[in-house]
Amino acid sequence: MFMQNNQVNDENMREISFAEAIREALAEEMRRDPTVYIMGEDVAEAGTPFKVLLGLVDEFGTERVVDTPISEAGFSAIGVGSAMTGMRPVIDIMFGDFLPLAMEQIVNRAAKIHYMSGGKLRVPIVFRTTLGAGRRSAAQHSQSLHAWFSHIPGLKVAIPSTPYDAKGLWKTAIRDDSPVIFFEDKMMYSLKGLVPDEEYTIPFGLADIKRSGKDITLVATSSMVQVALDAAKKLEEIGLSAEVVDPRTTWPLDKKTLIASAKKTGRVIVIDEGYEQYGVTAELAAVIAEGAFYYLDAPVRRFGAMDVPVPFSPVLEDQTIPSAEQIVEAAKDLCAV
Amino acid sequence: MSEPKMEPAGRNEKSFEVSLKRALRMYRQMVRIRHFEERVDNLYKTAQMPGLAHLYIGEEAIAVGVCEALGKADYISSTHRGHGHCLAKGALVGRMFAELLGKKPGYCGGKGGSMHIADPDSGNLGADAIVGASAGVATGAAFTSKKLGLGKVAVAFFGEGALGQGLLYELMNMAALWKLPVLYVCENNMYNEYTRYTETTAGQLEDRPLAFGIQTKRIGGQDVREVYRTAEELVKDVRAGQGPAFLICDTYRYYGHHVGDINRSYYRSKEEEGMWKKERDPIRILGAWLTDTKNVSPETLSKIDKEVREEIESGLEFAKNAPYPDPTEVNANVYAE
To answer: Does the beta-carbon distance from A114 to B334 stay under 8 Å?
Structure first.
């Protein structure tokens, strides 16, 4: 069953956290398919530092929830080789900042083997990792590096913003026969949201309109969706109606929905927590500029993380993340109010 | 750094006994690889082949001896110098040439080329052009075999250059920890591209796997009977669940790092090349054993040679006459359908 948020029937919903939604999706898929396994550092009894996987080892055992040495390249390579031969691994890369250690396996192997083999080999693997600053964790535990993977043909990239989306996208990711990089905002694990009792999946490449509006479109991803919704509320107070569009996957990308919203409102701000230079915001802005140019009343504005290594001191770090206030100011500017 | 094992002195000849039927089969395979590669060299030098190739000539006994110890369902993973491994595991000459020429009936539909030939039907998980990567693919395949109880062994072929890659040490650690059924086959042809291995490799080669408690053998790689018998022993242990094994075969590539590497005097001498070709040629060594101790007539060997040449020529004709892929194929297989 495919569902979008606006089709949800509240009667069969429960409120659970982002972390619980992810854990449910993994557990359900592991029950459904015995070839699914999780591998990474401290995934078993520890349940990862964010405790997202807590309890999975009790149900599935250490045969399927596999603790590894601190060897991101090595266990990613084992994941790829096992995916080529019949397993469906979920490879846990504790922090998005550790992805560079596994980059070679993801970019040169997982992304290319299906194509290089003329379609004969498949790599159904999911790399599970985090993004997002704000935890006072400094430059090597705070980055949002999803743009790198969105740049590579052969990879799919999921970046959910709600418990509902996280669960539905996770189930799709595990069932996909292509490699998926799944980014979870580490600041969002305790965020609560409604999730259906019944089983559902969310297809990749289908944006979700988180809030309808007519004056301006705010395209936001992952951690920035809540920021955009907050900005939309503030804009409403001054009489501006903002539409919030969440692509949910940066690749495949639902260009159609982005362009349609841009055509409707004529003004667009793009917000993403990756670095702004050559980032996701650049691609989204280009898609909108190309697809809706004659409908735009103003140039597309974009907000990414500041182009600096994420600093430690709170007074410095907070400046690097786009804020609702900045978006409100930019929206007022674009709408000339 | 110990010098390569070239001298047959002190070998226990008796332990390398193989049946006549097996010896003749291995002889034919080595001759097949030799003539295939000579034809590839010729295609390159007459500008009939796009790109380039890394020839296996001189090292034939390793691929043939090791693959002779495997079953069809067992896995191999290979390298940029991979034609010999593919043929030894059962690939057909015509489809190999077709891939090298970028033609539609090639093993990868023309999308892989010389460095990426994959043939899952013969257990070949593909050649990988990043040094050391083959070890990851095979270790992952061994992980699948163990998890699903398939009873298959996975063999990773790589050169001594891969000993410079950190990935290999992460993999050996996990393979040993988890007793994965993988055999690492290190073909020490003594040159990391254009640099002698003694300039790049500290300590002893065999001390590396031994540090992880991995069963390790270092042998001369030019006598296919020795390679086969040693591999057979190791494969037996690996399949029985005793964990990974590591086989170092000292060998020599007669030609350059790739087909265009013609002037090699700055990194190795003509005398050294001549010595290996004259005294340590794997086809001559087995041929001499067959004629001297098994009463095989020189005519029988000439007949094999002639049949293989015909097979190579007819395979090449097939490839030359084969169609190129349809241009629309460029977009196919980026993602698995």
So the answer is: yes
* Containing structural domain, residue B204: 18-260+298-323
Q: Chain B: give the shortest CA distance to residue A73, in Å.
A: 6
How many whole angstroms separate alpha carbon B156 and alpha carbon B168?
A: 11
pLDDT of residue A1: 42
Residue B1: the pLDDT is 54
Buried b (16+ CB within 10 A) or exposed e, A9-31: eeeeeeebbbbbbbbbbbebbbe
Encode pLDDT of A150-198 as tens digits: 999 999 999 999 999 999 999 999 999 999 999 999 999 999 999 999 9
> Residue B118 and residue A83: Cβ atoms within 8 Å?
no
Q: Which residues of chain B have pLDDT under 70?
A: 1-13
pLDDT in tens, A193-204: 999 999 999 999
> Is residue A117 within 8 angstroms of chain B, CB to CB?
yes
Q: What is the DSSP letter of A5?
A: G
Chain B interface includes A126 (CB < 8 A): no
Q: Answer whether A81 sits within 8 Å of B106, measured CB to CB.
A: no
How far, in Å, are B40, B95, B318, B324 from residue B321 at the CA level? 16, 12, 5, 9
The interface residues of chain A toward chain B in range 243-282, judged by CB-CB distance below 8 A, are none
Residue B284 lies in a domain: no
Q: Which domains does chain A have, with CATH numbers?
A: 11-196 (3.40.50.970), 208-334 (3.40.50.920)
How many domains does chain B divide into?
Answer: 1
Residue B134 lies in a domain: yes
Chain center to CA of A282: 17
- Closest CA–CA distance from residue B335 to any residue of chain A (Å): 6
The nearest alpha carbon in chain B to A101 belongs to: B167
**In the predicted model, is pLDDT for residue A12 greater than 50?**
yes
CATH classification of the domain holding B102: 3.40.50.970
Residues B105, B179: Cα–Cα separation, whole Å: 39
Residue B300, token pair as written in the block: 């029988």
Contacts of B144 in chain A (CB under 8 A): 81-82, 85-87
Closest CA in chain A for residue B135: A77
Q: Has this prediction a pTM greater than 0.80?
A: yes
Asked whether the predicted pLDDT for residue A2 surpasses 70, the reply is: no
Complex prediction ipTM: 0.95
pLDDT of residue A9: 62
